[in-house]
């Protein structure tokens, strides 16, 4: 058996194509942030700041409401089917927002955009199509895409606003969303999924078991804290760049872009080292501590320009590693049959963090000033560290890949299901995935177990395993 420890062409194609879908959705949110409040001032009937806030926040609110249902649906009806529906909703919401100059209709459109909550389905599909040892790399690609999208949005929003205006930006993201359907259909690989009849009680049972899983709860609190702190701090950071550095809002990209790129350069070796030396827990907890330090640095250096820049660099190094590691840990710990449900709970926690972080950050900034905001963020990180110290490291898993030599095994769902059940009975096998497009079987097995590869190959119609 030949094992490839690098990312396979299938994994690279899956990661890049799904990262582009992630990036598109974030583009639809990021592009309007630097310009929407100014645009709203020119709308008829002069909307209040509260209405403008609702228009911006409606997206996140409906994301939180629909993440979990979409994740659960993806477990039962397939990842791609759910992603198609989500992209159509996102496009519809974009067109509604772009068509009207009434703030109420724009709020409705933003809510429809957020209702296409496909993050859980996309993350679950990434987990389906990548091996455990490469999943953090795949998530890092998505995390980097989100970061680059954010930076590009800060640069591109004023330019696009000048060329096509905010309505045009809404329309553009709508058309891009429809184009993304073609990427999902023709570029993203399709793992074979077999719908096994289940009772109506089982999904509820899966949901309850996910909520009771203390290892998953630690990670869900982590993503909540991470994004609550992000929303709270970014209420103050843009204003601080103006006051301490004298930078106009259109020049903020000159700080964000090099800081983000520098943090990505440092993030990659950290992730590779954690996987290579099996120190994922140490690196994970270390980055939470680093995030705690960053929040304290913000509190002391928020009014000193170069101190603020250094704080941003430390923040983004920790943020990028944690943002890449959390989904990977979720996918490793979650039961295979409830992976979409687990990621749905995770993404709901993230959306709630965005909502409550903005809410509490604004309140604390008004009542106690900037230091109280960063103290709140530091408290969140301290709680997270205390929870993470007792987390269990996921079992060491490796992935074996076999060619399916007897193609007749794939001609009917019953035959495929029979082969799948036989493979699951083999000692040490934790999860079985059959990839029709590749004509391969991926087995996730315990590293400590000795797997009888010859019997697996014979079961698949060959004499030897090939990877």
Would you kindly provide a written description of the structure presented here, covering whatever features stand out?
With 467 residues, the chain is mainly alpha-helical. The chain has three domains: 7-195, MFS general substrate transporter like domains (Growth Hormone, Chain: A, Up-down Bundle), CATH 1.20.1250.20; 204-394, Growth Hormone, Chain: A; 398-459, Alpha-Beta Plaits, CATH 3.30.70. The protein has 17 helices and three strands. It has helices spanning 9-30, 36-41, 49-77, 79-99, 103-115, 119-129, 132-186, 201-212, 214-233, 237-245, 253-276, 280-301, 305-333, 339-368, 370-388, 413-424, 453-459; strands at 397-403, 429-435, 440-446. The protein has a three-stranded antiparallel β-sheet, covered by helices on one side. Strand 2 (429-435) and strand 3 (440-446) form a beta hairpin. Helix 1 crosses helix 7 (132-186), helix 4 crosses helix 7 and helix 9 (214-233) runs antiparallel to helix 13. The protein is globular and about 70 Å long. The chain starts with 8 loop residues before the first helix and ends in an 8-residue tail after the last helix.
């Amino acid at each position: 058996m030949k094992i490839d420890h690098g990312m396979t062409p299938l994994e690279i194609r899956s990661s890049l194509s799904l990262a582009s879908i992630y990036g598109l959705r974030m583009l639809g949110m990021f592009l309007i942030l630097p310009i929407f409040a100014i645009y709203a001032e020119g709308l008829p009937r002069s909307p209040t700041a509260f209405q403008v806030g609702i228009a911006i926040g409606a997206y996140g609110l409906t994301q939180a409401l629909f993440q979990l249902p979409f994740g659960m649906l993806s477990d039962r009806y397939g990842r791609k089917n759910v992603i198609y529906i989500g992209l159509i909703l996102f496009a519809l919401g974009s067109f509604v927002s772009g068509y009207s100059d009434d703030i109420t209709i724009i709020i409705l459109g933003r809510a429809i955009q957020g209702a296409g909550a496909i993050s859980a389905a996309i993350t679950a599909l990434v987990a389906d199509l990548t091996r455990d040892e490469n999943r953090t790399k795949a998530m890092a690609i998505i995390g980097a895409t989100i970061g680059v999208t954010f930076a590009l949005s800060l640069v591109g929003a004023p330019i696009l606003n000048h060329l096509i205006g905010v309505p045009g930006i809404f329309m553009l993201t709508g058309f891009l969303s429809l184009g993304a359907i073609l990427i999902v259909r023709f570029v993203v690989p399709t793992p074979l999924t077999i719908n096994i009849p289940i009772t109506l009680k089982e999904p509820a049972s899966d949901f309850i078991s996910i909520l009771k899983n203390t290892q998953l709860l630690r990670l869900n609190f982590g993503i909540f804290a991470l994004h609550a702190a992000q929303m709270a701090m970014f209420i103050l950071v843009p204003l601080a760049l103006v006051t301490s550095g004298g930078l106009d809002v259109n020049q903020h990209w000159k700080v964000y872009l090099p800081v983000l790129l520098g943090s990505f350069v440092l993030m990659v070796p950290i992730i590779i080292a954690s996987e290579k030396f099996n120190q994922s827990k140490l690196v994970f907890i270390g980055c939470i501590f680093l995030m705690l330090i960053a929040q304290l640095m913000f509190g002391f250096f928020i009014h000193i320009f170069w101190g603020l820049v250094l704080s941003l660099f430390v923040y983004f190094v920790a943020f990028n590693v944690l943002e890449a590691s959390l989904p990977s840990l979720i996918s490793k710990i979650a039961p295979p049959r409830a992976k979409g449900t687990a990621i749905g709970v995770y993404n709901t926690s993230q959306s709630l963090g965005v909502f409550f972080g903005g809410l509490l950050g604004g309140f604390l900034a008004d009542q106690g000033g900037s230091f109280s905001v960063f103290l709140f963020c530091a408290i969140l990180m301290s709680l997270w560290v205390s929870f993470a110290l007792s987390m269990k490291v996921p079992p060491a898993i490796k992935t074996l890949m076999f060619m399916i030599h007897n193609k007749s095994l794939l001609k009917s769902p019953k035959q495929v299901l029979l082969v799948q059940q036989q493979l699951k009975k083999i000692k040490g096998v934790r999860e079985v995935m059959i990839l029709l497009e590749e004509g391969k079987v991926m087995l996730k097995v315990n590293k400590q177990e000795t797997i009888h590869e010859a019997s697996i190959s014979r079961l698949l119609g060959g004499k030897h395993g090939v990877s």
